[in-house]
Amino acid sequence: MKNITILHTANEFIAKGDYESFLAYCTADTKWVFIGERILHGKEEVRAYLKEFYQEPPVFDVEKSIEEGDFVMVTGEIRLRNKDGKYDHFDYCDIWRFEDGKMAELKAFVIEKQGLPLPSSE
């Protein structure tokens, strides 16, 4: 199975809130780097992160997926329900590194959409 297919299959479990099935697609020593925010080491830290931030499954809109060798890059938008019950919107670019068909490392660039006005054409 191609790495890009593995990633999309694993993310289907995230969308259903089945985080344990998702984690089965990760290596035991998986490393997640959220640029400028935090680094998670191993499945236990990832499990705790998912429990904290994905109390309700996120909504993903994938724009583009590119696979090259052991790497898959995905861009898109993610929406997460906040404590007030409203959705926060983020743009993201994830770069995944695979080892033996499992997700070994994530480098994630996640930027919250602030509802900024578009630049004027003046």
Tell me the layout of helices and strands:
Layout: H1 3-16, H2 19-23, E1 26-34, E2 38-41, H3 42-53, E3 59-68, E4 71-81, E5 87-99, E6 102-112
Parallel strand pairs: 1-6
Antiparallel strand pairs: 1-2, 3-4, 4-5, 5-6
GO molecular function: isomerase activity
Protein name: Ketosteroid isomerase
Pfam families: SnoaL_2
Question: What would your notes on this structure say?
Answer:
- The chain has 122 residues and is of the alpha+beta class.
- It has one domain (3-112): Nuclear Transport Factor 2, Chain: A, CATH 3.10.450.50.
- It is 25% helix and 48% strand.
- Strands 2-1-6-5-4-3 form a six-stranded mixed beta sheet, with helices on one face.
- The radius of gyration is 15 Å and the shape is globular.
- This is Ketosteroid isomerase.
- It holds the Pfam family SnoaL_2.
- GO terms for molecular function: isomerase activity.
- It comes from Sphingobacterium siyangense.
> Based on the structure given, which CATH architecture is correct?
Roll
Unreliable spans are none
The total of beta strands comes to: 6
Topology order in helix (H) and strand (E) letters: HHEEHEEEE
Shape: globular
Number of helical elements: 3
Instruction: Please write the CATH class name.
Output: Alpha Beta
Instruction: Give the helix proportion (percent range).
Output: 25-40%
- Report the average pLDDT across residues: 92
Report the radius of gyration as a whole number of Å: 15 Å
Strand content: over 45%
Q: What is the SS-derived class?
A: alpha+beta
CATH topology assignment: Nuclear Transport Factor 2, Chain: A
The number of domains is 1
Main beta sheet? 6 strands, mixed
The main sheet orders its strands as: 2-1-6-5-4-3
Q: How far apart are the termini?
A: 51 Å
